[in-house]
Design goal:
Blueprint: H1 2-20, H2 22-34, E1 41-45, H3 51-54, E2 60-65, H4 68-77, E3 82-85, E4 97-103, H5 112-118, E5 123-134, H6 139-147, H7 162-171, E6 174-182, H8 192-199, E7 212-219, H9 225-228, E8 233-240, H10 247-252, E9 260-267, H11 274-284, E10 290-295, H12 301-311, E11 316-319, H13 331-339, E12 345-349, H14 362-379, E13 391-394, H15 395-408, H16 416-425, E14 430-434, H17 449-467
Parallel strand pairs: 1-2, 1-4, 2-3, 4-5, 8-9, 8-11, 9-10, 12-14
Antiparallel strand pairs: 5-7, 6-7, 11-13, 12-13
Length: 470
């Protein structure tokens, strides 16, 4: 009885805090919702009366809480929500969720590791976990605010650093793939609060003073090679413009992997005989390879890739540039990474190994390193190479990305940023695979260093407003 009274008190205090500090709680809700999607199923642990879970996008939404009093109040307030009385230490639900949120509750539970282990009951291999919690540096300020009556007093709690939270997730069998911090001023003053929290608070060093820490995690990948090597079919899209001399090598050098490999050539307004060569190669290897071909309707690599993806039937979608500077022999590495659960979006990185002498011009190398720094800042994780042409994701994630494209707009003629930003917005775990970047053996690059570099820079500023400064 004393146990239930304790959690009734906690839930009541959290609800009161939400009412008094709506600006603070709305920011948590909006940020979690940023990474949700209308096709996701969502579970909130410690939902109180359901304010957060009610405002999260999702095809199915469930909230659980210890407090019968709060759940009953929530059902009256949100009759369409599924809210259940249930301890986080013993979750009894017969389904798996795409997104699970624990917002500012882990400090109140007696055994955090036990609670986190319970999440496996309601997680599939690609479930995403978002944990929000106070920055422990704010403990004296919050206690002072409670003393002065600026914040509702709450029962004593554990004050945990983000390192400690991430370690508990690791011990419970989850892999933390992103960390974030938000809000340096938790009170609303027109103009002042948005300036401090949306812009100044996002800057390096200053962000470490934020009141809220966010940890993003997913279950550890434990699949053996036998379990994943034939699990998925794959589509490899090869956009080709003036690459006649590389077409046959793309076929002969590409290993077979997965359950089935479909190859799609998309020719893009070539001035040489690339289209004729593609048709010739399709016929030549018809008995040994599943090859589809097409010509793009518009311009740019992004248009070619999208046309190829529209034709694709594979579970996993890949891009292989027809210049073959990313060796086709390396493509199975990308399949192994995504099929084994190491990541949801696999990006090639050309900037780890030494390159062949003429593989990348010096100014291109500087540009790639610059964009690496920018993307590391924007995406809040180390990002080495944004412009490597080889990118891999699941077809169902691409379908969700297409639905989300209206959020960013059709702004990217190359397709690299569109896929990376889309993957981030979908809360996918992004992993880079180092590859050796080779010299061209045929043709010339289609990239203009200065004109295209300026376009990429403009896209970074555009995306900053949609990703970082939100």
């Amino acid at each position: 009885m004393r146990y239930l009274d304790y959690f009734d008190k906690i839930a009541a205090k959290r609800v009161e805090n939400r009412k008094r500090h709506r600006y603070y709680w709305n920011d948590i809700t909006n940020y979690c919702n940023y990474f949700a999607h209308q096709n996701y199923s969502v579970l909130e642990i410690g939902c109180g009366t359901g304010e957060l879970i009610n405002d999260i996008a999702g095809k199915r939404k469930v909230g659980i809480d210890y407090s019968a009093k709060m759940i009953e109040e929530g059902k009256k307030k949100y009759p369409d929500l599924e809210l259940r009385i249930m301890p986080a230490e013993d979750i009894q639900l017969d389904e798996k969720f795409d997104l699970i949120i624990l917002s500012n509750i882990i400090g109140y539970v007696e055994d955090i590791q036990l609670v986190l282990k319970q999440l496996h009951k309601v997680s599939h291999e690609r479930t995403k976990i978002i944990i929000t919690y106070y920055n422990y540096l704010w403990e004296p300020i919050i206690k002072l605010g409670e003393t002065l009556g600026l914040k509702t007093k709450t029962p004593n709690q554990n004050w945990l650093s983000q390192v400690e939270i991430n370690n508990l997730l690791y011990l419970a069998g989850f892999d933390v793939y992103r960390q974030s911090k938000r809000m340096i001023f938790p009170f609303y003053i027109p103009l002042i609060s948005p300036l401090l929290n949306r812009y100044i608070g996002r800057l390096p060093i200053i962000r470490f003073l934020s009141i809220n820490n966010y940890s993003f995690a997913m279950p550890h990948a434990n699949l053996s090679e036998e379990q994943y090597k034939d699990k998925y079919s794959t589509t490899v899209v090869i956009p080709a413009r003036n690459e006649s001399g590389n077409i046959e090598n793309a076929i002969t050098r590409l290993p077979k992997f997965g359950k089935h490999t479909e190859i799609i050539f998309i020719e893009g307004n070539s001035t040489d005989d690339t289209w004729e060569k593609i048709q010739e190669i399709q016929k030549k290897y018809a008995d040994t390879h599943d090859i589809k071909i097409g010509q793009q309707d518009g311009k740019g690599k992004a248009n070619a890739v999208r046309k190829g993806y529209d034709m694709a039937t594979g579970d996993i979608l890949m891009i292989l540039d027809a210049d073959l500077t990313v060796p086709p022999e390396d493509i199975p590495k990308f399949y192994n990474a995504i099929a084994s659960g190491k990541g949801d979006f696999i990006n090639g990185s050309r900037l780890v190994y030494q390159m062949e002498k003429e593989a990348m011009r010096f100014l291109n190398l500087l540009g790639n390193k610059f964009f690496s720094i920018v993307f590391t800042f924007l995406l809040e994780q180390q990002f080495k190479d944004t412009l490597c042409g080889t990118k891999v994701l699941f077809r169902k994630d691409y379908d969700n990305l297409v639905e989300n494209r209206k959020f960013f707009g059709d702004f990217d003629p190359f397709g690299d940023f569109d896929l990376i930003f889309g993957a981030y917005k979908l809360n996918l775990k992004i992993v880079e695979i180092p590859i050796r970047y080779r010299e061209r053996t045929y043709g010339e690059t289609n990239i203009s260093r200065f004109r295209h570099g300026l376009i990429l820079l403009k896209m970074c500023f555009f995306a900053a407003r949609k990703i970082k400064f939100i």
